[in-house]
C-alpha cells in the first residue's frame, strides 16, 4: 500500500499559511523559501523538521527533495 506524501506547497497550503508566513516561521527570506518549495535547492534537515512541526505532518509524509531535479549520489 502506497502512503500519500505531500509536497511542501501542499503541506503549507493545508496549514493555511502563505509563503511569506512560512518563510518567517523558518527564519529565512521569502525568496529562499520559494526556492525550497520549487525544489530548486534541497531543504536542510533542521529546517525540514521545523517545517514538518509547523504544518503538523510527520516528516515522513512530506516530499522534501525531487530526485528528478537534483543530482543523485553514486
TrEMBL record:
Superkingdom, natural source: Bacteria
Domain HTH cro/C1-type: 8-62
Any one Gene Ontology molecular-function term assigned to this protein's record: DNA binding
Matching PROSITE patterns: HTH_CROC1 (PS50943)
CDD domains, per the entry: HTH_XRE (cd00093)
Protein name per UniProt: HTH cro/C1-type domain-containing protein
Source organism: Peribacillus muralis
Amino acid at each position: 500500500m502506497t502512503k500519500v506524501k505531500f509536497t511542501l506547497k501542499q503541506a503549507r497550503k493545508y496549514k493555511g499559511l502563505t509563503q511569506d508566513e512560512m518563510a518567517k516561521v523558518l527564519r529565512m527570506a521569502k525568496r529562499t523559501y520559494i526556492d525550497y518549495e520549487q525544489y530548486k535547492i534541497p531543504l536542510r534537515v533542521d529546517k525540514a523538521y521545523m517545517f514538518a512541526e509547523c504544518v503538523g505532518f510527520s516528516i515522513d509524509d512530506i516530499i522534501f527533495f525531487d530526485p528528478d531535479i537534483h543530482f543523485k549520489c553514486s
